[in-house]
């Protein structure tokens, strides 16, 4: 609650400041996305004497940090939860007087003239940091059962799922984290993994293997949901042998991966393999949008630091 109040206050203050003092547009760094990548990039840019402005489409900062519910164990130098980490990050943003806007989405970018457009505003920039993360992939065949038997996440519906048999589709962090959260209160959890091995962090997988009511099923593809008025479970096919089977379950959680939010990138340019800057232009791509296969917060903040330094050199070349 305190966090939201602070966010609202900050939003208002940001608009006041904008009205009073024109931003030195030769140093304005537009950061699209208020997840850990965008927030870290803003902190680093501020330290470089640049003027970051974060645009976040949802009503709150944090991006995927809001989806991590187990304590963090692989973020060096920090012990705690993702929400504690976010609280600290937001406090730092506030202390540094960094400007951000919530609930505004960048819809279009005129790369030639360095202008980005929200629904009702145009924002000029000297350099752009794309930190748009990724989006959840949905399965269209699940639509008829959404909310009643099918959910995009277990959090928020844990009570509804109590004592039931749950199938989780997916083999990444989200799938395993949800399985670990649910296991103590449900009868059984089946994790359906499309490939031969899970993508999730090793310690999630090891924990899940030790819990007796969690089972892992490999090479399982969800064919379709039975077209029946009453939900009866899933129809599966083995992705190598094609062998079909029906999995009886009460509820399904979809955690079948993410797709990078790259819609705003210029069509001809994809994120570089190793570098962060797009083809010598004033565009940097950082975090999960660049690296959706192996998402990691430490990589996000490292890329944020690197991008801000590169931008600083790019805007004020020596000599
Ligand atoms: C369940 C789960 C557990 C995880 N556990 C760990 C862990 O233990 N350790 C670890 O290192 N990593 C973990 N990760 C991965 C980590 O959370 C991500 O790598 C990291 O949070 C990605 O940050 P990001 O800022 O790049 O992207 P995101 O957090 O996805 O942020 C992108 C932001 O951009 C905004 N946005 C997108 N498009 C626009 C637009 N057009 N205009 C304005 N805003 C826009 C989005 O709303 C979003 O807020 C986990 C992830 C999940 C889902």
Which strand order do you get reading across the main beta sheet? 3-2-1-7-18
CATH topology tier name of the largest domain? FAD/NAD(P)-binding domain
The H-and-E topology, N to C, reads as HEHEHEEEEEEEHEHEHEEEEEEEH
- Tell me how many strands there are: 18
Structural class: alpha/beta
Distance between the termini: 50 Å
Give the class-level CATH name of the largest domain: Alpha Beta
pLDDT below 50 for ≥5 consecutive residues: which ranges? Answer: 1-6, 12-22
Instruction: Give the tally of structural domains.
Output: 2
Overall body shape: elongated
Strand content: 15-25%
* CA radius of gyration: 22 Å
Compute the average pLDDT: 88
CATH architecture of the largest domain: 3-Layer(bba) Sandwich
């Amino acid at each position: 609650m305190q966090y939201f109040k602070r966010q609202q206050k900050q939003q208002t203050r940001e608009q006041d400041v904008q009205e009073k003092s024109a931003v030195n547009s030769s140093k304005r760094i537009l950061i699209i996305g208020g997840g850990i990548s965008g927030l870290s990039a803003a902190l680093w840019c501020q330290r470089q004497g640049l003027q970051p402005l974060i645009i976040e489409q949802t009503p709150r900062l944090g991006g995927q940090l809001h989806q991590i519910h187990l304590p963090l164990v692989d973020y060096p130098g920090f012990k705690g939860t993702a929400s504690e980490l976010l609280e600290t990050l937001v406090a730092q943003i506030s202390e540094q007087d960094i400007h951000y806007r919530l609930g505004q989405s960048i819809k279009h970018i005129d790369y030639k003239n360095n202008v980005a457009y929200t629904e009702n505003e145009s924002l000029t920039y000297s350099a752009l940091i794309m930190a748009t993360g990724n989006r959840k992939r949905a399965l269209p065949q699940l639509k008829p059962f959404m909310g009643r038997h099918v959910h995009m996440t277990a959090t928020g519906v844990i009570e509804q799922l109590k004592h039931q048999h749950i199938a989780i589709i997916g083999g990444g962090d989200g799938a395993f984290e949800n399985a670990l959260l649910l296991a103590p209160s449900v009868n059984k959890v089946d994790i359906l993994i499309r490939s031969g091995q899970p993508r999730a962090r090793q310690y999630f997988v090891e924990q899940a293997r030790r819990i007796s009511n969690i089972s892992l099923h490999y090479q399982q593809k969800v064919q379709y949901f039975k077209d029946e008025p009453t939900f009866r479970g899933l129809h599966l096919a083995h992705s190598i042998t094609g062998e079909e089977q029906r999995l009886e379950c009460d509820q399904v959680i979809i955690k079948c991966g993410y797709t990078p939010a790259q819609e705003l990138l210029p069509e001809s340019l994809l994120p570089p393999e190793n570098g962060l800057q797009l083809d010598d232009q004033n565009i940097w791509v950082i975090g999960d949008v660049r690296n959706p296969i192996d998402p990691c917060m430490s990589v996000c903040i490292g890329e944020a630091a690197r991008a801000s330094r590169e931008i600083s050199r790019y805007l004020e070349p020596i000599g």
